Amino acid sequence: MKKSAAILLAGLLSWGLGGCQKPLTAQGDWERAQARRTPVAYERFLRLHPDSPQAAQARQERDQLLRAGRAAPFRDLKRVQVVVDEEYVQADSPARHRNLLSHMAAYGAEQLLQYAGIEVVADSALAEGVLAVELGGRLSGTAYGESGQRPEFYWTGAAVQGAVTLRSGGAVIREEFAGSAGTPEPPKHLRIRLYQTTPNLIVSQGGLAPVEEKIALVIGKAFGPQLLVAYLYPQEKEKFRGTNDALARLKDPQTVEPLIEMVDEQETGVYDDAVLILRAMTGQKLEFDPGEWREWWAQQGGELGN
Q1: pTM for the predicted model, two decimal places
Q2: HSE value, Cβ hemisphere, 13 Å, CA-based, for 11
Q3: What is the gyration radius of the CA atoms in the chain, in angstroms?
Q4: What are the b/e assignments for 262-281, b being 16+ CB within 10 Å?
Q5: In the chain, what are the domain boundaries?
Q6: In CATH, what class is 74-223?
């Protein structure tokens, strides 16, 4: 009888520990988020436990902290219109091409603005600010296509130039860029795979990276670099990669510790992005070891070199 009772007690304990494991993990992560009280900590909690009882409070805390981190001229901004003006000329030809990247650039900007708590509106009369993306340049690639098909996509190595500007009242943040849009010829597997679906996507893949970087850089300057760090979690879903380069360029010391914390988070999938950003930001070539990064940061005394 005693043996049966012991077995039953062991089984109940085992069931209790196994059944309570997820709530205990969620509670532990919640306590960790509250202790750190940063947008990144709350976003990590939401990524791991989106349906937990604490999720609503986590979103509220995250949004309040992100609003507090905005630059003063943009702290009360609520509605923004996104406008993309894009036109290219084809080298050695009078042909002009518009809107090769527009929908993708606009989508990336809208997703990041919405994450910042900004409503994106189409009507300029309702907007309190405007995010303008200007793109231009010369296409120098080749038109591809087989007989009977539409050969209207281009892989370009030409310079693409433009600017991203955020205006609200008298406040203006502007970032200009000019650079290569890709290699002169597309990889053959890309050409075959993409031609049947979205022809212009070949140009988009080559040319969108500097556009996304400037969009993220402008938004990060207006709404705070902590926004960009926290957005590393949902960017995996949105496939918006401009935050990586923007964070490396901003070199804000307050983003170093949250990024180091991410190096230790293989369960969320952002650790690789965090290491790449830290390397680009600091010039260090440390591996995927948060302990090494913490030791190095302690030696720096919280300061980033030029």
Answers
A1: 0.78
A2: 6
A3: 24
A4: bbbbeebebbebbbebbeeb
A5: 27-68, 74-223
A6: alpha beta
